[in-house]
Amino acid sequence: MADELKEDKVDTKGPLQKLKDKILPDEDEQAAIISTFVRLGVLVWSGGILTLNYVAIPGVPQQKIDPTFIASVFTGVLASFGIQTASKKGDGTMKMNGNGGPNGVGKNGGPTQTIVIEQAPLKIIAESPKDADKKYTL
Question: Which residues span the domain enclosing 30?
Answer without folding.
Answer: 2-88
